[in-house]
Amino acid sequence: MAEPKPRDLAALLLTLTVVTGVVDAVSFLGLGRVFVANMTGNVVFLGFAAAGETTLSVLASLTAVLAFLAGALTGGRLARRDDDYEALRQAAAVQAALVAAAVVLSATLGAGTRVGSELLIVVLGVAMGVQNAAVRRIGAPDLTTTVLTMTLTGFAADSKAAGGPGAHPLRKVAAVAAMLAGAFVGGLLQLHVAMWAALAVALVLVLGVLAVLIRTGRKAA
């Protein structure tokens, strides 16, 4: 299969970064101050909750971490395939199915009960673990789709002002903007419309990525 064009691949990874912002906005604002994509935050929250912070839940944070690990395990198996596009395409298909299930759960069962919240955390955590494992294979350090710490570090440390080559500064800025945009849209819909509406936006974006990957595979075939 033909190798993906760097610009096309960057656009897909930026789209998945927007998805991360949307989904984490939903989980933090609607599922009890927990992240389903940002595991650094969850580990810190787990420590805070264990120390007695009553607005945080040990169960929710631990559930999110375990669900993410299950998703990363699944995504890791998919990432063993020979072709980057094929691995990302299959991961996007699995992720789309999981986010679709989350849309249905949020529109029916909702997050008003502990069972509903935990189910949504599990489904979304697995979905984001799958995404991260597939993206990790591609190895773009400034487009991880989830963690911006290294992206921001690279933007500053690799800049010409720091004596570096200044490689891909616009792409790094775009990654931050994509996460911010996703968080804004997800937060807006979660706070003022409904959880299912925010998750529906995430689903449309993942389906868009999947459609591009399928079309690319057909052209190569």
Walk me through what this model shows.
- With 221 residues, the protein is mainly alpha-helical.
- It has helices at 6-30, 39-50, 58-78, 84-108, 114-138, 149-157, 169-192, 195-220.
- The chain has one domain (20-220).
- Helix content is 76%, strand content 0%.
- α4 runs antiparallel to α5 (114-138).
- The longest helix is centred in the C-terminal third of the chain and has 26 residues, at 195-220.
- The model is unreliable at 1-5 (pLDDT under 50).
- The chain crosses the membrane at residues 56-79, 91-109, 195-214.
Radius of gyration of CA atoms, rounded to a whole number: 17 Å
β content, as a range? under 5%
Order of helices and strands: HHHHHHHH
**Main sheet record:** none
Transmembrane segments: 56-79, 91-109, 195-214
InterPro entries: DUF1275
Keywords: Membrane, Transmembrane, Transmembrane helix
Write the layout of secondary structure elements.
Elements: H1 6-30, H2 39-50, H3 58-78, H4 84-108, H5 114-138, H6 149-157, H7 169-192, H8 195-220
Keywords for this entry:
disordered N terminus; transmembrane; 0% strand; 221 residues; mainly alpha; 8 helices
